[in-house]
Amino acid sequence: MLSYPPPIQKLIAELARLPGIGPKTAQRLAFFLLAQERAAVAELAGAMLSAKDRIRYCSTCCNLADDALCPLCRQGERRRNLLCVVQDPRDVVAIERTHDFKGFYHVLHGAISPMDGVGPEQLKIKELLGRLSGGDVQEMIIATNPNIEGEATALYLARLIKPLGVKVTRLAHGLPVGGDLEYADELTLARALENRREM
Q1: Is the pLDDT of residue 37 over 80?
Q2: Apex 88 CA angle, 82 and 91, nearest 5
Q3: Where are the alpha helices (DSSP H) in the chain?
Q4: What span, in angstroms and rounded, lies between the C-alpha atoms of 61 and 106?
Q5: Most buried by CB count within 10 Å: which residue of 37, 80, 115, 171?
Q6: Buried b (16+ CB within 10 A) or exposed e, 189-198
Q7: Within a 13 Å sphere around the CA of 22, how many CA atoms are in the beta-carbon half?
Q8: Is the pTM of this model over 0.85?
Q9: For the chain, how far is it from start to end, CA to CA, in angstroms?
């Protein structure tokens, strides 16, 4: 049976390791890269190496940064008494797109998931407690994902933080704007009813 030369096989195998990339997509990507000019491929490889070498965690919020502090932690006009705890750096970007949150963030880098061997000690909870010990934070918004792992993490954090005298709130869950009730699952509808507000 005819197969690709070893360098192509290796490229396909490495691309297939990326999340969401199956063998067929990896093969298409490999042949796309082979068809590009060497300079374009070198630019891509350089961007990946540069990101890997230069990106680190912000010393304050654990978000991704290319300096000791991320751009958000360097902003002096944000509210120091309000802290939003998220699972992933992508969640920070999602919340920032709303232009409504004016506080600071803390990135956990995951959620409690015993099935995956992730406990509280694998998350950036120790760093969170260090930030809360300063006494500046009056309210902590837990914005973990509305799934089993996110809920477990939210409950764990709420039990841990409430005794410190910090108000702990959770993002409301409900129906998306523009969504139809008939297509919503039972849990989403139940949460929407539970978190209803007066008009």
Answers
A1: yes
A2: 60
A3: 6-16, 23-35, 38-54, 89-96, 125-132, 148-161, 186-194
A4: 4
A5: 171
A6: eebbeeeeee
A7: 1
A8: no
A9: 69
85 and 165 part of one domain: yes
The answer to whether residue 180 is domain-embedded is no
In a domain, 67, yes or no: no
**Contact residues for 158 (Cβ-Cβ < 8 A; gap 6+):** 142, 168, 170
Number of domains forming the structure of the chain: 2
List % helix, strand, coil for the chain (3-state, nearest 5): 45, 15, 40
What SS3 string covers 18-41?
Answer: CCCCCHHHHHHHHHHHHHCCHHHH
* 111-168 confidence digits (pLDDT tens): 999 999 999 999 999 999 999 988 899 999 999 998 899 999 999 999 999 999 999 9
**Domain match, 22 and 91 both:** no
- Tokens matching residue 129: 């407690």
| Domain-embedded: residue 191 | no
